[in-house]
Amino acid sequence: MYGATLEPLRSDMIDRDVRVGAALSFEAVYEQHFDFVWRTTRYMGVPESAVDDAVQEVFLVVHGRLHEFEGRSSIQT
Question: What is the DSSP letter of 67?
Answer without folding.
Answer: G
